[in-house]
Design brief:
7 helices; alpha+beta; six-stranded mixed beta sheet
């Protein structure tokens, strides 16, 4: 398969899990009807973005894999003969949780999972409280292994991973045919208009750079809508004119080609499935013209494995 039709489903947080299921069921069906063979969902699509606060009650949202969500996505993938990338709060064991992407193949089988490797801990994004990073495996992939499906090898990474060129490069070196990022990112409402523009531009640029540096198509599927900080919900005595704090998820899900060209992109507030075709054959064509892999100085990159390059000698 060289021509691949891809859909990325961007939506707001719904009030109940059943509303989410109903929406995804309908939108997945419509995307498949439009020809999509790869359908990507946003990060933690089943739940609110609970990481705005640290609360032990949120662990009740986690589920096993396989479990109810993978059963649902499996049925959808099998019915519509497509590959679906979902994003779940995984309960691996008692007291052990991951932010996990799952890939369901065209026949409904669980082709694989990827546990988020880079875990943020920033104001409003307190993920280290909830998620253990993915394991560094003992094979040659070290946790960055593309998932084989009937449509090709999917290099799945999750949100904060998208800021690290090393992760995209490792997926590409392991043979990924496409890079996929389920995402949940947005603005602090108190940010200035100029700062919001800088953040969105940086987010788009860094991911396009991964596509360019690895000559791979890329899918980034973000949330949309404003999600109130749970602390505001609990503080029922707060004045009515109090500005609610939370995250304005900035949407702008996009799919780009091997040279970073934007093929389709949603807006900030739209709830939609963006759909486009990518030509997987262009990866080889592009790498012949722009041979980054040929010219990598692998003999000179040892310091990339260091936390920081401190002074080599005290004599300096």
């Amino acid at each position: 398969m060289t021509q691949l039709t891809i859909a990325a489903i961007q939506h707001k947080c719904f009030s109940t899990p059943q509303q989410t299921t109903n929406h995804l069921q309908k939108t997945i069906a419509n995307s498949a009807k439009a020809g999509a063979k790869l359908i990507v969902l946003q990060e933690l699509h089943n739940t609110p973005y609970f990481c705005q606060q640290e609360t032990v009650d949120a662990f009740d949202l986690a589920e096993s894999i396989p479990g109810p969500s993978t059963d649902f996505l499996s049925a959808m993938a099998k019915e519509h003969q497509c590959v679906i990338v979902g994003s779940l709060f995984e309960k691996r064991a008692v007291g052990l949780y991951h932010n996990t992407a799952v890939v369901l193949d065209c026949d409904g089988t669980l082709a694989g999972r990827y546990r988020k490797m880079h875990i943020p801990d920033d104001p409003g994004f307190y993920e280290k409280f909830y998620f253990t990073p993915g394991d560094v495996t003992e094979d040659e992939f070290n946790g960055f292994k593309p998932i084989q499906t009937r449509i090709g090898k999917i290099g799945v990474l999750v949100c904060w991973d998208q800021w690290f060129p090393e992760a995209a490069r490792l997926m590409a070196l392991a043979g990924a045919d496409i890079l996929v990022y389920p995402t949940a990112i947005g603005w602090d409402p108190q940010d200035s208009k100029e700062e919001k523009h800088r953040q969105l531009d940086a987010w788009t640029t860094i991911q396009r750079s991964h596509a360019i540096a690895n000559s791979l198509p890329l899918v980034s599927c973000n949330r949309t809508g404003f999600e109130v900080d749970s602390q505001d919900i609990k503080q029922k005595s707060a004045p009515k004119n109090k500005h609610a704090t939370g995250i304005q998820f900035w949407g702008n899900s996009f799919i780009c080609g091997q040279q970073g060209e934007i093929l389709t992109q949603s807006s900030v507030n739209s709830e939609e499935a963006i759909i486009t075709k990518v030509d997987l054959k262009k990866t080889e064509e592009t790498r012949r013209i722009w041979p980054y892999f040929r010219d990598r100085r692998v003999d000179a990159y040892q310091n990339l494995s260091k936390r920081f390059i401190d002074s080599a000698s005290k004599k300096d």
